[in-house]
Amino acid sequence: MKVKEQLLTLKPYIPGKTTEEVKREYNLDKIVKLASNENPYGCSPKVLEAITTKIPSFSIYPDGAATELRVKVADYLGVDEDQLIFSSGLDELIQYLIRAMLSPNTNTVMAKETFPQYRHHAIIENAEIREVPLKDGKHDLEEMAKQIDGQTKIVWICNPNNPTGTYVNQLELEEFLSKVPSHVLVVLDEAYFEYATNNDYPKTIPLLNKFENLLIMRTFSKAFGLAGFRIGYGIGCPTLIKQLEVARLPFNTSSLAQTAAIAALEDNAFVEKTVALNKKELEKYYQFFDQLQISYYPSQGNFIFINIPGASSTEIFQRLLEKGWIVRAFPNGVRITVGKEEENEQLMKLLAEIATVKL
């Protein structure tokens, strides 16, 4: 038996070592994981209350249309219910977007250094991938626009970008959208939307009225702290959403996940507190990095991308791992999830040791 040839060129997503694996390998008592951009403050207490008091019947399939959650999200965003599609995390939404739109003899445009699942699933569909290098850590929208042609089906903009934390502002985004032909779908991955606090970060929901070829992706995994429930959603033109529903798996979001998401939306104070704490800790990181001449990108996410002069990303990753700290290494740098105050302070001390040796 043989699978598609293009699958042979790919590797499955590797989430990194578990805390228990690292404990055993390095004989450590405590591990701090700052690798996957989870919310270090957990989730709203209302979520725990909901999933323990509003327990669904586990022998019954979930509501495939996510009706109650759909009403809640539509009201929360100020959109119509038929503008929403739900998924098991944004990974699944990316998968069925690509499955629905890409095929051989089509192409998709994206940044070179961005969320890898866009590329991964495009390869599976045997589509051409046009990657544009980041410019100062940001999407090079001018060059991305030049890559679009009659066979382009999807353009991806991760905003804020993962792994750099940089963002495309309101003016830049609108100028870009005005250049994109109507046959090309522009997907805005706003997984870290809630963390973005700069005044010129785009207000994207109103843009849906102007650009029918725009789809926005958001998730409950990050600021809402529901990564373990795997639930995300897309917002777009009703006609597009109806077509995408055909590619969605039936019963793809669990009853428990829907219940948790509804409860999470009822506690905006928790999200606001999370975002405020994240911003405060980011500012501390900036001051620390400036003092030690460690290069970084100012971030609009709950993570920060750094380089220590003279140290490779693999070396930084390994040095931290041996001390019980798990971060995420990339070819050109290291991404660190912003943790709680005490975690960040301890990590800064370790980074200072590495930087002092290298300077």
TrEMBL record:
GO terms for molecular function: histidinol-phosphate transaminase activity; pyridoxal phosphate binding. It holds the Pfam family Aminotran_1_2. Keywords: Amino-acid biosynthesis, Aminotransferase, Histidine biosynthesis, Pyridoxal phosphate, Transferase. The keyword Amino-acid biosynthesis applies. One of its GO terms (biological process) is L-histidine biosynthetic process. Its EC number is 2.6.1.9. The modification N6-(pyridoxal phosphate)lysine is found at K222. Residues 30-349 form the Aminotransferase class I/classII large domain. Pathway: Amino-acid biosynthesis; L-histidine biosynthesis; L-histidine from 5-phospho-alpha-D-ribose 1-diphosphate: step 7/9. Gene3D superfamilies: Aspartate Aminotransferase, domain 1, Type I PLP-dependent aspartate aminotransferase-like (Major domain). Its cofactor is pyridoxal 5'-phosphate. PANTHER family: HISTIDINOL-PHOSPHATE AMINOTRANSFERASE, HISTIDINOL-PHOSPHATE AMINOTRANSFERASE 2. Homodimer. Belongs to the class-II pyridoxal-phosphate-dependent aminotransferase family. Histidinol-phosphate aminotransferase subfamily. NCBIfam families: hisC. This is Histidinol-phosphate aminotransferase. It comes from Lederbergia citri. The lineage of its organism: Bacteria, Bacillati, Bacillota, Bacilli, Bacillales. The gene is hisC.
